[in-house]
Design a protein that fits this description.
158 residues; mainly alpha; 2 domains; 3-stranded antiparallel beta sheet
């Protein structure tokens, strides 16, 4: 095999040719930028995502929450225990099904929403793109995520 064939054979694993790498690096950088404003709320980024889902949707089971925020039970359970310990939510076993936990915000967790309003404003502008491009990027990411969810649901049924 000559150098040209060898080079083209490995094109698929060049970092610069990967779609996933800039997506990963951007996500990591955005989460890093959330660190400072979320420290003031005593939340990690993942805890913040969970709290946003609960502020928006209200009480729900752990499984329902996992579906919304795309986290499995192994990741979600310790996070929820910490939020409960902080006084932001309660976890209650459902009657008739000891394995299902119902999550509800406490008054303190609900009140945290008012303090969290400042977070998006502090983060605004961390991706230096025109508003139209940011809107398109979000639309495409939402579309990709929805299709990945559909594919996963289909695979789970098979």
């Amino acid at each position: 095999m000559d150098n040209t064939q060898t080079a083209s054979r490995y094109e698929c694993i060049r970092l610069g040719n990967q779609f996933c790498f800039p997506l990963y690096a951007c996500a990591k950088e955005i989460v890093r930028r959330y660190r400072k404003p979320l420290e003031e709320l005593n939340l990690t980024y993942t805890q913040y995502v969970v709290m946003m889902a609960l502020w928006e949707c209200g009480g729900m089971t752990e499984g329902e929450l996992g579906g919304i925020v795309h986290l499995d039970s192994g990741t979600l359970a310790p996070l929820l225990k910490r939020l409960e310990k902080q006084g932001y939510l309660t976890r209650t076993r459902l009657d008739g099904n000891e394995r299902k936990l119902f999550l509800a915000l406490t008054d303190e967790g609900e009140a945290l929403k008012d303090r969290a309003i400042s977070v998006p404003e502090e983060i605004q502008g961390c991706i230096d793109l025109p508003k139209e491009e940011l809107t398109e990027l979000k639309r495409l990411l939402d579309k990709a995520l929805a299709r990945m969810d559909q594919k996963l649901q289909k695979e789970n049924k098979e």
